Amino acid sequence: MSFNLFRPSFGTYPHLLVGRDELLDEFEDTFDGILDPAGLTILLSGQRGMGKTVLLDSYRRAAESAGWLVITESSSSGLLDRLTRDHLPRLLQRYSDKPPTRLDSVNAALGPVGGGGSWTGRYPAESTLRSQITELTDALQPSGRGLVISIDEVQAADIEDLRKVGEIIQYGRREERLLAFAAAGLSTPIEELLDHPGATFLRRAEHHPIGRVSRADVRAALAGTIADSGHEIEARALDLAADAIDGYPFMIQLVGYHSLKAHRTSAPVSVDDVDAGVKAARRRLGRHIHTPALRPLSSVDRTYLLAMAQDDEGPSRTAKIAERMGVDPTYAGQYRRRLIRDGIIEPAGHGLVRFTIPYTAEHLREHAAHDALEGLSEDER
Ligand SMILES: Nc1ncnc2c1ncn2[C@@H]1O[C@H](COP(=O)(O)OP(=O)(O)OP(=O)(O)O)[C@@H](O)[C@H]1O
Ligand SMILES: [Mg+2]
Description:
Strand order of the largest sheet: 2-3-4-1-5
Mean pLDDT: 88
Oligomer: single chain
Bound molecules: adenosine-5'-triphosphate, magnesium ion
Strand content: 5-15%
Shape: globular
Helix content: 40-55%
Number of helices: 15
C-alpha cells in the first residue's frame, strides 16, 4: 500500500516534525513536575509557513499530556467575550465543584448565585475573567494540573483584550497559579505589538523566533515521510529536493507532496518526479506566501529587494545593493533594518543579507517583469 503522508496546508501537524527538538524538550520540561515559570509564558514569532501554529499545537500536546486544560483561540475580535462566555464557563462546569456557572443571567436582579455565580452581564469582562480563571485554577491545583490559554495569530488581537488577558496572567504569576499563556504570530506585527504599552506582559514572555531548519533535518523529514508513505527515493532526487526546500518547513510538505503526486511507478521517486514536484510547489508558494508577504511593502522596500534579487545565488552584499539603488549606504541601511525586522530578509554574515523565504528573488524578478509589461500596456492605452 502506498499513500501520500505529506501535509501541505497551514496549521496541519506534519507526519514528521523536524528541527524543533530543543523547543519540544523545553515544552515538555515546562509541564513536567518542577515548574520553571519562564516556560509558562511563551511567544513564537516568524514568517508565514515556518511552523508556528504547529509548534503551538506541540505546546498544547505537552500541556495536555501532563493533564493540563488548554483553551485554544485564534485572535479575532471578541476574544475576551469568547473566553468569559464560552471557554471558561464550559470548563468550570466540568471541573469546578462550586455551583455551575450559568451562561446567561436568567434573572439579572438575582445576581450571582453561589461561588460560580452568573458571570455575564453584571460584571466587567475583566473581573469576570479573573474570577473564572481563579476558580478554575483553584479547582485544578490539588491534582497538580493547570490551565493554558493559547492564542494563534496574536498580531490580529484587539490590543485592549490582550492587555486585560495579560494583566490576569500577571496576577496569576504573582499568586503562583498553574496558569500558562502561549501565543504565536507573524514577525513584523509582533515586533510592533511588543512596542505597544498594552502588551507589556508579552515583552516578558520567552520569545522564540521560529526560522528555517537544517538540511539534515529536511532530508530526514523527506526520506522518513516517503518511506512511511510506502515509497523509496533515489539519493540524487533527495538531494535535489533538499536543495529546493532550502530549510523552509512549509516547502518540505509542498515539495514532498507534489513529488509523490508526480510519481507514478513502483520504482523509487526519481529526479524527474522531484523536478515536477518542485515546479508545482513553487507555484503554490508564490500564491500563498510571496504575494501576501510582499503586498504591504513600500515601493522603496521593493526597490531594495529587487536590487538584491539581481544576485542569482546566495547572499547579497549590502554595499552592492546601495550601489545598484544609486543611494548612499546609510540610506539603504534604513531599509535593510526595516526589512530584517519585517522578516523578509535576514543577516547572512558581515555586510551580507539574504531572503528569509526561498524563491523570493525569483518571484520578485518574475513579477517585476510582469509588472513592467502591465505598465507598458497601460501606457499604450
Ligand atoms: N518542523 C517542521 N517539520 C516539517 N514540517 C513542518 C514543520 N513545521 C511546519 N511544517 C509544515 O509546514 C506547514 C506550515 O506550518 P504552520 O501552519 O505551522 O506555519 P505558520 O508559521 O503557522 O504559518 P502562518 O504564519 O501562515 O500561519 C504545514 O504544512 C506544516 O505541516
Ligand atoms: Mg499559523
